Amino acid sequence: MNKMYDICITGGGTAGCAAAYIASKLGLKTALVEKNNFLGGLMTGGLVLPVMKSEDENINVEFYKSLVSNLKKVNGAIEYFDNNDGWFNPELLKITLDKMLKSVGVDIYFEMEPVKVHKRNSLIKYIDFSSNILSLSIYSKYFIDSTGDAKIFKLLGQKFYQENEEKQPASLRFLVANVDIEKLKDFLIETDKNKDVTNFCTYNGKIHLTTAYTWDEKNWGLKPLFEKALQNGDLTPFDTAYFQLFTVAGADGLVAFNCPRLRNFDVNSPLDYSNAIIEAREAIYRIFLFVKKYFKGFENAYISNIAPITGKRETNKIIAKKQYTIEDMKNEMPEEPILCGDYPIDIHSNKKDGSILKTNGKYYLTIDSLMSKDYNNLYAAGRNLGADNRTQGALRIEKNCMSMGEGVSKHIYKILNFIN
């Protein structure tokens, strides 16, 4: 079966959904192909929530604002006290994304992956997609790779941007249900007086909160609890590398954990990577038992969900027409910015005191860092953009990825409108 579109987007995560929604809303015939049976990528399957706050100057945030508005209608989003309105409910997000994209006419193809890219000179003509039972060839004028891992670029045999530094570690997130949030809030506020780390707010009569700890040498309020757990053998040293939790919008008693990290593994060994995931699930159970024993509010709690998608922070970065660097972060606003952000350079490391969180002020991204160097109708959008390691550590957050997807679709629309 063959299909013809104006834009074909591979990957229905944050960038892909934004690209598809905006393209179809602009009147372009749009296909969105997703390997899972749900949209949202790491937000839904990876439980990577909340969306981190970032200044945007209202540049390519139409999709994001519409998403927040639609989620609030179903009690699937809250606004935290710091004005971050990206505290979403992952399950309601799946339903909301389906409705939003179908409402503007996007053709969504679930459980399909790209298997072959057909090209002629510097143009992609069509891509073969396949599932266990179906196959589909999609012809399109333009293609967007929003897979995160740059799968279309990989199928084309493209080389990826490399630096000597090791990639940021992934995390395997999980949810714990039946938590007494009021009791947990009182305990945390008493235990950790640092309001920059441990804080809470009330939204529509419900308490929402967050706290964190890492093994980096900082004055963490929760440090005595982790040290005691290490002494008692309840946690391993690596379990303490990174710990963070958030409540979840529209889900009383539900707490989302941004941990544990995966250990460093042999990137050339699929078996070692798989074993690292198994070890991460074992760590989840230790962390769960730890909070039940050392925190108040978890007495009757249980693990309700372990993310089916590993939370990758960094994989393949394309070699774009222009590779975005730290110097580009210092530039004034260009004529046509794809996004505006001020989220800091956030680089996770499995080495103690090796992580970086560095504020750089406001920065802008242009379309050439999302354009294939070799193919005239191929773009990237998401964490696979053309950037160096440091700048990717700031640009990779979900809100920025949504702006990338939206910006690429608007750029393609202008080209097609000019041609026609």
Strand content: 15-25%
Report the mean per-residue pLDDT as an integer.
96
Structural class by helix and strand composition: alpha+beta
Helix fraction, binned, reads 25-40%
Major sheet: 7 strands, mixed
State the oligomer. single chain
Shape call: globular
Q: Topology as H/E string?
A: EHEHEEHEEEEHEHEEHEEHEEEEEEHH
CA radius of gyration: 21 Å
Low-pLDDT segments, ≥5 res: none
The number of helical runs is 9
Distance between the termini: 27 Å
Overall strand count: 19
Keywords:
420 residues, alpha+beta, seven-stranded mixed β-sheet, six-stranded antiparallel β-sheet, 9 helices, 19 strands, 28% helix, globular
Verbal overview:
This protein is α+β, with helices and mostly antiparallel strands and about 425 residues long. Helix content is about 30%, strand content about 25%. The protein has nine helices and 19 strands. Strands 1, 2, 5, 6, 7, 8 and 19 form a seven-stranded mixed β-sheet that branches. Helix 1 (about 15-25) packs parallel to helix 9 (about 400-420).
